[in-house]
Automatic annotation (TrEMBL):
<dbReference type="GO" id="GO:0016491">
    <property type="term" value="F:oxidoreductase activity"/>
</dbReference>
<keyword id="KW-0560">Oxidoreductase</keyword>
<dbReference type="InterPro" id="IPR012349">
    <property type="entry name" value="Split_barrel_FMN-bd"/>
</dbReference>
<dbReference type="Pfam" id="PF12900">
    <property type="entry name" value="Pyridox_ox_2"/>
</dbReference>
<protein>
    <submittedName>
        <fullName>Pyridoxamine 5'-phosphate oxidase family protein</fullName>
        <ecNumber>1.-.-.-</ecNumber>
    </submittedName>
</protein>
<dbReference type="InterPro" id="IPR024747">
    <property type="entry name" value="Pyridox_Oxase-rel"/>
</dbReference>
<feature type="region of interest" description="Disordered">
    <location>
        <begin position="1"/>
        <end position="21"/>
    </location>
</feature>
Length: 219
């Protein structure tokens, strides 16, 4: 199965016109978002959903968590999972409450994770750092051997995926069009604020230029 196409198991059944088969659109969403929600079922059958920092690395996603986590150990052992990523882009304010909705881009990835080790693990963590904090890898201390041993790094292939995009204006019923109320879309913008110094800085330090660039490059 080509990782450049959505899989039969991830075909959208509800509102299928919102499904996008654009792999470039999927990559843009994954490269924009910082948090994924990862589903895992425990041995007793209880499902859990974990919020996890992630990064796209070509045709796979990189996830990381604690080696002490039984849920991550289950994922590392090959338990099936579903990873979802959503960006909320605005609110659709219709003339009726029923037709009001959201602008969003939402991805779902099905599959099984592979645990990364050795040099591949270190490289994946560097990719994750660059995605979450662009430019920081050159300044911050890399993980120690002890820290690496405490960290579980997983990869899941972008093979079974779907992308759903909602970006239309309000779709009010004809009988509501004459209501004397405003209707439209209110964009929702996500951006970084002004950096705040850590209280334990040993001496005054300037905010790095790459940090100051985040509001422009990561909005």
């Amino acid at each position: 199965m080509s990782p450049r196409q959505p899989a039969p198991r991830t075909q959208v059944r509800r509102l299928p016109d919102k499904q996008s088969h654009d792999r470039a659109g999927l990559d843009r969403l994954l490269d924009h978002a910082l948090v994924a929600h990862v589903a895992v079922v425990a041995d007793d059958g209880q499902p859990f959903v974990l919020p996890v920092g992630f990064a796209r690395d070509g045709d796979r996603l990189i996830l990381h968590g604690s080696n002490a986590s039984r849920l991550f150990r289950g994922l590392a052992a090959g338990a099936p999972t579903c990873v979802s990523v959503t960006a909320l882009d605005g609110l659709v304010v219709a003339r009726s409450q029923f037709e009001s909705s959201m602008h969003y881009r939402s991805a779902m990835v099905l599959g099984r994770c592979t645990e990364l080790t050795g040099d591949e693990k270190s490289a994946a963590l560097a990719t994750l750092t660059e995605h979450l904090m662009p430019g920081r890898g050159a300044d911050a201390r890399p993980p120690s051997a002890k820290e690496l041993a405490a960290t579980c790094v997983l990869a899941i292939p972008l093979q079974e995926w779907s992308l759903k995009v909602s970006d239309s204006p309000p779709d009010d019923a004809d009988e509501d069009l004459d209501r004397p109320v405003w209707a439209g879309v209110v964009p929702l913008l996500h951006h970084f604020g002004h950096p705040v110094d850590a209280p334990d800085l040993r001496a005054p330090r300037p905010v790095p230029a790459y940090v100051r660039s985040w509001p422009d490059g990561r909005s």
